[in-house]
């Protein structure tokens, strides 16, 4: 039985966009990427391949804090993390604080078939050399300017902008969750971190708290990494669906708990029935989705904490 594929992507969560122009540019970027992912899903590409492609495209967009355009840490270096999860196999893999690579998601995906499925800094860099991946500098002028300004201010801010020159305050991560024509789910998440962090800090993105999937549902998270880890958010939502809650019910319960504890986060999700759901405790979630018949986004949705699309 051929199933109509579905996909939802995100480019981070934050407090506010400067203006209509910035919001339109983010929407344009997300929709263009959605079209490319969905075109592949329509011709039978697997959820795994679709998620990797989507993450690559988001990593290549300097507007988002992953891959090219990643933020600088306290020492002025870029260290990126990514995770991939195959829902059908219920298999997680990831890289933590990798440097000088264009697509961290590629390493995370490659490790799906490795006996050692999560590698950090030196190990991830060695794997990149073993695969003969070209050395790549993800630094952009905008992110360098941002870091230099914050250094001048003695790093008064606790984190960088999620979208280059577009967010007042935000938490930057990109993510993709896809359902393919065979009914299989995959999820991927990639990040440059929160910016200005202590060297060695590990984000949620390369953990099951930030990225998780099984045969029932898949979730990718964004927001304050420590808050997401404390909630074990992605795994919690997926497990609640597996235990019998609807996806929207699992998201509502999880977001209510997170809000009660003062967390700052967001999540995108879909389940095996094709239901697409998102949730947030932050003001904005930069997400967009494709149902096969409808393309939409969450950029204008400031008040609603949980949203749902079917069809």
Walk me through the topology.
Blueprint: E1 6-14, H1 20-42, H2 47-60, E2 80-86, E3 91-98, H3 104-110, E4 118-120, H4 121-130, H5 141-152, E5 170-171, E6 174-179, E7 185-191, E8 211-213, E9 217-223, H6 225-231, H7 233-242, H8 247-260, E10 265-271, E11 276-280, E12 284-290, E13 295-297, E14 306-309
Parallel strand pairs: 3-4
Antiparallel strand pairs: 1-5, 1-6, 1-12, 2-3, 2-7, 6-7, 8-9, 9-10, 10-11, 11-14, 12-13
Helix pairs in contact: 1-2, 2-3, 7-8
General description of the model:
By secondary structure, this protein is an alpha+beta fold. It has one domain (6-93, 140-309): (Glycosyl)asparaginase (Glutamine Phosphoribosylpyrophosphate, subunit 1, domain 1). The protein has 8 helices and 14 strands. It has helices at 20-42, 47-60, 104-110, 121-130, 141-152, 225-231, 233-242, 247-260, and strands at residues 6-14, 80-86, 91-98, 118-120, 170-171, 174-179, 185-191, 211-213, 217-223, 265-271, 276-280, 284-290, 295-297, 306-309. Strands 1, 2, 3, 4, 5, 6, 7, 12 and 13 form a 9-stranded mixed sheet that branches. Strands 8-9-10-11-14 form a 5-stranded antiparallel sheet. Helix 1 runs antiparallel to helix 2, helix 2 (47-60) packs antiparallel against helix 3 (104-110) and helix 7 runs antiparallel to helix 8 (247-260). Mean pLDDT is 92; it is low at 165-170.
């Amino acid at each position: 039985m051929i199933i109509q594929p579905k996909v939802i992507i995100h480019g981070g969560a934050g407090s506010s966009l400067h203006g209509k122009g910035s919001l339109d540019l983010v929407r344009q970027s997300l929709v263009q990427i959605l079209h490319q992912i969905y075109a592949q899903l329509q011709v039978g590409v697997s959820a795994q391949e679709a998620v990797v492609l989507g993450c690559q495209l988001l990593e290549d967009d300097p507007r988002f804090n992953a891959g090219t355009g990643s933020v600088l840490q306290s020492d002025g270096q870029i260290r990126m993390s990514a995770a991939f999860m195959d829902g059908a196999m219920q298999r997680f893999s990831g890289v933590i604080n990798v440097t000088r690579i264009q697509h961290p998601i590629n390493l995370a995906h490659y490790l799906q078939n490795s006996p050692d499925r999560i590698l950090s800094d030196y190990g991830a860099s060695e794997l990149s050399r073993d695969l003969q991946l070209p050395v790549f500098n993800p630094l952009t002028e905008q992110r360098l300017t941002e870091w230099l300004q914050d250094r001048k201010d003695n790093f008064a801010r606790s984190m960088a902008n999620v979208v280059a020159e577009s967010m007042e305050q935000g938490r930057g991560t990109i993510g993709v969750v896809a359902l393919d024509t065979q009914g299989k789910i995959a999820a991927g998440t990639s990040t440059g971190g929160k910016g200005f962090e202590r060297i060695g800090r590990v984000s949620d993105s390369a953990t099951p708290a930030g990225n998780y999937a099984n045969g029932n549902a898949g979730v990718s998270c964004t927001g304050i990494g420590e808050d997401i880890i404390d909630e074990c958010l992605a795994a919690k939502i997926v497990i609640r669906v597996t235990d019998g809650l609807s996806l929207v019910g699992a998201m509502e319960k999880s977001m209510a708990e997170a809000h009660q504890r003062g967390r700052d986060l967001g999540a995108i999700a879909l389940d095996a029935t094709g239901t697409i759901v998102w949730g947030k405790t932050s003001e904005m979630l930069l997400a967009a989705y494709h149902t096969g018949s409808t393309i939409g986004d969450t950029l204008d949705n400031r008040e609603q904490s949980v949203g749902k699309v079917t069809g």
